[in-house]
Amino acid sequence: MSDSSRLTQTRTLVAATAAIAAAVTAGSILGGQAIRRRLRTAELKRQVEADLAGQPWNDTSALDQTIQLDAEGADGVRVESLSSPTEKVWAKGEYDEELIREQLSRNYTFLGEEGMQKVRDSYVVVVGCGGVGSWCALMLLRSGVGKILLIDFDLTTLSSLNRHAAATLEDVGTPKVEATRKYLKKIAPWAEIETKVGLWRKGTESESWLAGADWVVDAIDNINTKAHGKSPQVFSSMGAGAKCDPTRVQIADISNTYEDALARNVRIKLRKQGIHSGIPVVYSSEVPGEVKLLPLPDDEFERGKVNELGAFDDFRVRILPVLGPLPSIFGLHAATYILMDLAGKPLEFPLPIKNRRKTYDRLDREMIARETKMSDDIHQAKRNPLSQDDIAYVFEDLHQGRSTIPPHPVLTKPSLIRWYKDQPLTVWNCVVMSDKEADRHMKEVLQGDKTGVEVWGEEAERIVQKRARDARAVWEWRS
Length: 479
Prior knowledge:
Elements: H1 3-52, H2 63-66, E1 67-69, E2 77-79, H3 97-103, H4 105-120, E3 123-127, H5 131-142, E4 147-152, H6 176-187, E5 192-197, E6 215-218, H7 223-226, E7 234-237, E8 249-253, H8 261-272, E9 280-284, H9 298-302, H10 325-342, H11 357-373, H12 388-398, E10 414-418, E11 430-434, H13 435-446, H14 452-456, H15 458-478
Parallel strand pairs: 3-4, 3-6, 4-5, 6-7, 7-9
Antiparallel strand pairs: 1-2, 8-9, 10-11
Helix pairs in contact: 5-6, 5-10
């Protein structure tokens, strides 16, 4: 046998030996890990059984099904669920002051002892237990409010499960207030939680339901119900439907709300009662891009007039689409505002985000000056066809405070200017530019012979046309 053949056999033998050794080592490691997992599982079962021994739900026969190995970790054990066969019912006196203090310890630290005592002694009425109201009630209770009254006439439906704080499949077909009460009682059995299955209407006997309340949360999307006064203190939620930007949600006085159709109609109702301000609200300044009511099946139209299909004549049958997290954000804003007020630390001057009046005034003046220069009579001052709300919409919502010209920088000194010379100045024929860009556009397009696409390129033209379509859609919805 040649030396090369011997060398090849030796290398093959060494490789085979190494492979066998590796397989044996891996088997030993994996076997050891499997043993450790079984030992950990057994120990966990023993600990759980010991913990449950003194509880009324001490049946541990299902532990083998509820404890499973973690497929991703070699040594991990995961408890997927541990449901009790019987629901724990707290008897009066089973919970004490220390238990309550422990649950609310974080709030004590933040609001202080005196503030938390005020919260625990408070009484809040939540009118409307849908997506907004249920989340508000949940956090008011978790934060220590001692007494809550839930008012709603509606039943839990499958379609409401995407946004409700408490309802489950088991609650479908039952009153929303009962689904909420049942859930809240599991969290704080010492709290006093009452319910009213009915419709609250101003000027009826239902007004007595609000007697003695420190705060009333108005979480109903019905305009007539919202047309309330100031007594007792009312915090109102505006429209969360068709909104998707959580950064636009804010608290403001009803007089400082923008781009919210429900808030606008409520302001009109309140002014007829002589109320112009003084009611805090949560709303979104977002202008929805696609505002469409959810469609009704054809067979519903065949039954008769659509406005006769509702349970009540002033409630709409068709609803706006709702993105699940947005109502909860509205509800948490309301709960936070009320808790701070109850604790004696009110948010006295919530900042109206979309209220940059000085900026809008400057944009207005400069736009009028440029429009006047386009006139044959330079001495004839033009009146801006855009209102200040229109200017705010074009600048804030349509163009997000950035230049319409790519790469769309944030501008320290923005300008609004007409895009097409041969079309009137409207919200869909108005763009945002820097001062230098606006001067160039004025000289070469509005007073020259070029077009916007020739000066700024096809990408800018495409963006202008897209945003013009968005603006027209919003105006059609408003009209």
